[in-house]
Amino acid sequence: MTEDCFSNRRRSACGGLSADFSLLFPNFFSTILNSVPFEVISLSIMAELAIVFGICLVSEGIVAFLPFSFPASVISMLLLLALLMSGLIKQRHIDRVCHFFVGNMAFFFIAPCVGLIEHVDTLLSALVPFLIVCVFTTPLVYFVTAWVIQLMMATRRGKGAACD
To answer: Is-contact 56 108, C-beta < 8 A?
Structure first.
């Protein structure tokens, strides 16, 4: 019964949610709410959010102790990478929340874009150096990324051959 109340087809018949959140986040709700009971999703998503935000909180603490400024988001990504690579956190532990974040990434860029619009005069005064940096660093990032991927694929092939 609970599963039927949260499906899109029977929402009004069960007197369910007043707002249709599936319209706001179609990738997230359409695949999850129609297939799994809501109680299980709430606990699972809350646990996944706790893991992600816990890592962010730990990285904020690390930044507070550093003698130099460093973005906490970068430390968070490095911590998450280390935890995933070590196996302490499995991909399935954060899978749904990560799909939600990636599926709705454009929404998270609204506030930074508004901030850029507020400081357009400052940006225009430094436009030429900014464009020069963009022109030179973009290909560099592409080449380094391609090289790292090739290195990882070669390393993975080497490990696969050693296991066979």
So the answer is: no
For the entire predicted model, the pTM comes to: 0.53
Q: Report pLDDT for 95.
A: 86
Contact 75, 61 (CB under 8 A): no
Reference 61, options 51, 72, 49; nearest CA is 72
Contact by Cβ (8 Å): 78, 26:
no
Cβ neighbours of residue 70 closer than 8 Å, sequence gap 6 or more: 63
Name which of 7, 28, 5, 3 is nearest 15 in CA terms. 5
Per-block mean pLDDT, blocks of 10 residues, the chain (164 long): 43 42 52 50 74 94 93 93 89 87 88 87 88 93 95 85 53
- Residue 161's pLDDT is 58
